Amino acid sequence: MKLRKVTAAAAAALVLSLTATACGGDDDSDSTGSGSGGGDKIKIGIKYDQPGLGLKEPDGSFSGFDVDVATYVAKELGYDADQIEWVETKSADRENALARGDVKMIAATYSITDERKQKVDFAGPYLLAHQDLLVKTDSDITEATDLNSKKLCSVTGSTSAQNVSDKFAPKAQLKEYGTYSECIAGLQSGAVDAVTTDDSILAGFAAQDQYKGQFKLAGLKLSNENYGIGVKKGDTETLDKINKALEKMVSDGAWDTAVKDNFGPANYKNEPAPKIGDIVQ
């Protein structure tokens, strides 16, 4: 009788041990990427609602310049396209997503700023964009100063609307929405008079079939936006590898191809590929 009790206890312990091992295996999988490739998956943060940059298509696939850049970089780190897990990272949560380890890197129209560099490290830049305004085609807004007493939309966590208010139109009525898609819908309905963010983002929306002919870019260069790939603060190994990948992407022509594929339909006038570490103020 005593032997049976010991045997049962041992069996129970073995089951618990095997269960814990299985669970531990799931937790320790290289889901965010090791930075040197070879993991089962690498998690990369992107936007889901930015045509031409980061867009989740109806069939579940992803498209855009940021997606193409991140895919190229991931390959150089040792990950095939089917090993990438795309994670939606909204503007207000990018720093937190990296700090928590939710993603290995973020390529999501992530402008390099001194304030952000206190929290994350940036590879790049890989694109120089400019802040602009998107308005209706019949709008009388042609300059940033015309936004005084007008309703101006940008997304929560973005510095674009505040930049306009501080420098050009202090009486602008700022409206912050969760996504750029909401801002564009507000512009279409008349709830806001203009949307401000980077010209690359605005051009992508203006070129969409459902919006063609409704909107126009004001053509203003209100700021320089140096897009970088964000990584967790202190992850210099991954940072160096991403920079080398970006340099290779430019040198082998893949960068130019990605620009034409994603921005060509919108007739977007892009700047030449920036050099790594060359931040245009």
From TrEMBL:
SUPFAM superfamilies: Periplasmic binding protein-like II
Leader sequence segment: 1-22
Protein name, UniProt field: Glutamate ABC transporter substrate-binding protein
PROSITE patterns linked: PROKAR_LIPOPROTEIN, SBP_BACTERIAL_3
CDD domains for this protein: PBP2_GluB (cd13690)
Cited InterPro entries: Bact_solute-bind_prot3, SBP_3_CS, Solute-binding_3/MltF_N
Upper classification of the organism: Bacteria, Bacillati, Actinomycetota, Actinomycetes, Kitasatosporales
Coiled-coil blocks: none
Family the entry assigns: Belongs to the bacterial solute-binding protein 3 family.
Solute-binding protein family 3/N-terminal domain location: 41-266
